[in-house]
Specification:
This protein is an alpha+beta fold. The protein contains 4 helices and 5 strands, in the order βαββαβαβα. A hairpin with a 2-residue loop joins β2 and β3 (42-50).
Length: 119
């Protein structure tokens, strides 16, 4: 079984994104086999999906507002291209580890007029 590591980040709120991400991933035919909190701002999901559903998963990840790294985009594009060359009826299972960082949306205004920083 092939395994792929993806890293992504988002500015969305964790409590709003995780349920919609879980639903979208399940809707495209993937199974969430493990979910782990790495830190207060980082979550890890382990997914399994058939290769023929790779494009659906890619679209689902992007539609929830995730920003994949360049390597993550390339890995998903490669999966989508591999799927084109599968023999009809051939099912190949892929394992994906998604590391998701939740970032704060810091604006210039909040930096300039926010609380003073003391050295």
């Amino acid at each position: 079984m092939q395994s792929i590591d993806l890293q992504a980040h988002t500015y969305e709120e964790r409590h709003g994104l995780v349920p919609s991400l879980t639903a979208m991933v399940s809707h495209c035919g993937a199974w969430i086999t493990d979910r782990r909190t790495i830190s207060a701002t980082t979550l890890e999901l382990r997914l399994e999906i058939q290769l023929r559903s790779a494009m659906d998963l890619y679209a689902a990840l992007l539609s929830t507002g995730l920003e994949l790294t360049r390597r993550g985009h390339q890995s998903m594009v490669d999966l989508c291209n591999c799927q084109r060359y599968l023999a009809t009826g051939e099912a190949k299972l892929i394992t994906i580890r998604l590391e998701l960082a939740f970032l704060e949306d810091i604006t210039l205004h909040s930096l300039l007029f926010g609380q003073p920083h003391f050295a």
